[in-house]
Amino acid sequence: MEVKTSLLDNMIGVGDMVLLEPLSEDSFLENLKKRFEHNEIYTYIGSVVISMNPYRSLPIYTPEKVEEYRNRNFYELSPHIYALADEAYRSLRDQDKDQCILITGESGAGKTEASKLVMSYVAAVCGKGQEVNKVKEQLLQSNPVLEAFGNAKTVRNDNSSRFGKYMDIEFDFKGDPLGGVISNYLLEKSRVVKQPRGERNFHIFYQLLSGASDETLKKLKLDRDFSKYNYLSLDSASVSGVDDAANFRTVRNAMQIVGFMEDEVQSVLQLVAAVLKLGNIEFKPESRSNGLDESRVKDKNDLKEMCELLGIEQSVLERAFSYRTVEAKSEKVSTTLNVAQAYYARDALAKNLYSRLFSWLVTRINESIKAQAKTRHKVMGVLDIYGFEIFEDNSFEQFIINYCNEKLQQIFIELTLREEQEEYIREGIEWTNIEYFNNAVICDLIENNKNGILAMLDEECLRPGTVTDETFLDKLNMICAQHQHFESRLSKNSKFLTDHSLPHNCFRIQHYAGKVLYRAEGFVDKNNDLLYRDLSQAMYKANHGLIKQLFPEGSPAKINLKRPPTAGYQFKASVGTLMRNLQTKNPNYIRCIKPNDKKSSHIFTESLVCHQVRYLGLMENVRVRRAGYAFRQAYEPCLERYKMLCKKTWPHWKGPARKGVEVLMSDLKVPAEEYAYGRSKIFIRNPKTLFFLEERRRQCLQDLATLIQKIYRGWKCRRQFLLMKKSQVVVAAWYRRYAQQKKYLKIKHATTVMQSFARGWQARKLLRQLKHQKRCEEAATTIAAYWHGTQARRELRRLKEEARRKHAVAVIWAYWQGLKVRREYRKFFRANAGKKIYNFTVQRIIQKYFLNLKKNLPSMSPVDKSWPSRPYSFLDGVHAELRRIFHLWRCKKYRSQFTEEKKAVYEEKLEASTLFKDKKALYPSSVSQSFKGDYLEINKNPKYQKLHSAVDEKVLLADTVSKINRANGKGSPRIFLLTKKSVVLADQKSGQVKASVPLLDLASVSVSTQNDGFFALKLKEGSSSAVKGDFLLSSERLIEIITKLYRLSATNADRVPLNVDISDEFLVQFKNDKVCVKFIQGSPRNGSGASCKRKNNRLLEVSVPSTA
Ligand SMILES: Nc1ncnc2c1ncn2[C@@H]1O[C@H](COP(=O)(O)OP(=O)(O)O)[C@@H](O)[C@H]1O
Ligand SMILES: [Mg+2]
């Protein structure tokens, strides 16, 4: 349960008097002294702050300090006025409780400074913004203005507030300041005309004279020299450490910030100047006939100047200082004033002028700083009222001031001591009564409506007849004699009869803070606060806006015979209002103590402090705190605040709040003596315990915040993750698609390339084949075309020539005819008839020609060479052309009748012509022969059946040839068979196959140019058939055989066409040797054909009979 706090750590003495051990007045003072000596000027008694005036500036009001105390627990840090201000401000802002800060203490104890510190702290921590800053600035700047006019140097304090001030600062729900209201209480106006020894008048007089520019002073008709003014005491005109001139500038600036207009400031300064002038007006007696002295203004210069300043008619004011008009019912009696009365009137005017000016200033400031918005607001009141005063010579003012302090003490007692005890009783908490002095009796002595001192003073003032201070004292002596706190020499109470410290013209009151001896002199006057009506009327007549406002009772329309309320009555009423106001608010106490009477920073006058501690009731305060409990709170808010500290109460507690708090406390193992359960509240004895709870709560809140943060962060991250995951899937899908697409395209492209290569290759192969085929076809066609072409052209040339000649003849003839006809008929025809006749004639001729031609067309046989002769030579070309066309058409017709076989026969014939025409003399004889092929009718003739079956291919040619014997050149008959694949030689008689040579083994065929049937079949060297050697054969159908062989080789795709060698000398390979076959022209044919003879080993000679 040990909780470390800054309040308790490293402490000088103890920070909270409640923790003082042992508790006695000595230890209390010792603690204060120790702390004071270590510059610890603040000490707590529970929530009350004791503040010792350090009389020097300490570095504890810096912005860093403000931050340090901001939003911190009250007991968390070492005691400071900021902790109290923070507590009050937060309680106002967060719990919606109006606050008041009650600052009490003697004059010079540091109340005003404390109030400024509180205000500046609140200004520093509350909201910011242009509007808010303006409000703050105005609130803060109201201080220098009021201090200049309401503070003065006294023997106790160089800057003593001579008025009471209560300021309500208003905040909105956010805690931003909205504005404020200042109430002022009884300015000590007697100071305007007279100051005790060693004291000064109000600061403003000195500030104006030292700080204003020469020009301003001239305008105000003032002189810078203080000594020129009667109202300014001279012995302490300047205060050490105070720069009046600089302060004047500060005040002017502050007035501007608060919102004073320049003409308002001028008016105020004029009034201040007027007061100074007023003090300089002096009077002299002037004897009157009735023997009485009448006062006269001595030197009228000051009067004149003052009247000029305020716009008053000099004579009016002058008269008001010499006469006084007393109105009784309807009568008006004018009496003269003696010199003393004139001085009294002058001073009364000065005091009234100044105090009314001061009140006007407060009203004017309020106008500026009042909250603009009409919304509900929270209020923090700061009370800085003059402290308890005991002077050598105490008068009405001290009486009033001390009465006010009595009331404040009363409210302190009410709220802290009595309330506390009563609450314990109410709550049923065991309580040992603490004796304390209740000053209610003193308050009663002063303010009792029936026989209180103020009531009696009023009674005296209002009583007809002679009223003096003595009569007032007599009355007091009579009525209050029995009162314990009232002492007077002449009272019935005999024990004071011999008390020489008690003069006859005085009375003494035992205030809570000590006995004060009051001189009765002046009480009646001051209470009456009389200002002769002539004076107020004179003021009202002034040609000066502000003065007029200040003296409304001077208005003739407002003649009021009723006496104005007395000063005492007014004060009592306003104090009453103040007390009621304070009671509605949550009080925060600052109890100021001055350490010495010398304004010294290092002296701790024990007796003086002890006295203050006693009358402030601080010891009782501590005792009550210690006997009782430092902290209490209703169960509901307590449970609400701390329920998170226990699992059973968090997050919801179902039962009654008290039970919940009990569970909570036992769960937290708080020692039983540390708390007590009241009827509606829990009481916690020690602040430590409270702080322990607070600390636990803070930690718990942190943990909860961390938990929330954790869950939130987790949720956020998860969301982010899921989003990313989703996106990643999309991205991946897209990427894969893209990659696959790319891959596919690549493959597709490659496939296309490969395909195109393969197709290209195939196509080229096919193209090659087709081209070859086509070339072959084209070659045949071209050859035929050239052949036909040549023939046709030759024919055409001839025909053309013929036609030309005929045409020439016709033309000549026609011309001749025409000439003749024209000669003959010239005389009958007109010029162009000749041409028509010519055309007609030509047409007729052509018509006749066509008809004739049709009739005489030759036969359809292509070999028919007949053609009708031409009738006219001019038709020569046409005639030949028509013959050609007709022949072509006839040939086409003829060809179209051909069967496939016949076509093949003709193709063969054509081939034979290509091979042999004009190359071999045998050829012409073959043209008329039809190429029959099978001359032996091999498949019909039973003789050749065996042979036929031996040859499995279709036989293309079968004939009998003679095979030339290589030895003697004699021929022996052989059957020659040609199939698609081979050449077969067989015995003529037996039909037995002698040799079968595959066509592939044939290298070439050699024939002579002569009219013979010899041919050599040459075999390819190295082939299987070549072993036996080449064949030398002879046949009459040589042309047909060679042509067929050639054609077979040409149609065979994988063979080169057979080479046909036509020459009269060629080599034949017989077995191992080569034999030359030579053809020679023999004698003319004599029956037999060509004969062959072996000449030698190397020569075979063939003699061919000549054809001639
Ligand atoms: N907290 C403080 N720090 C420094 N000086 C202080 C402090 N409080 C008071 N004083 C000094 O004491 C003087 C009197 O204080 P003041 O507040 O005017 O007294 P009071 O208002 O109680 O009469 C101030 O002028 C100032 O010099
Ligand atoms: Mg003060």
Description:
Pfam families: IQ, Myosin_head, Myosin_TH1. With 1108 residues, this protein is of the alpha+beta class. Among the domains are: 430-512, Methane Monooxygenase Hydroxylase, Chain G, domain 1, CATH 1.20.58; 631-688, Alpha-Beta Plaits (2-Layer Sandwich), CATH 3.30.70.1590; 860-897, no CATH class; 900-1061, Pleckstrin-homology domain (PH domain)/Phosphotyrosine-binding domain (PTB) (PH-domain like, Roll). It has 32 helices and 31 strands. Strands 23-22-21-20-26-25-24-27 form an 8-stranded mixed β-sheet. A hairpin with a 2-residue loop joins strand 14 (506-511) and strand 15 (514-519). Helix 3 (81-95) packs across helix 4, helix 5 packs across helix 9 (244-258) and helix 14 packs across helix 15. The chain is elongated, with a radius of gyration of 78 Å. The termini are far apart. Adenosine-5'-diphosphate binds at residues 53-58, 105, 107-113, 157-161, 387, 592.
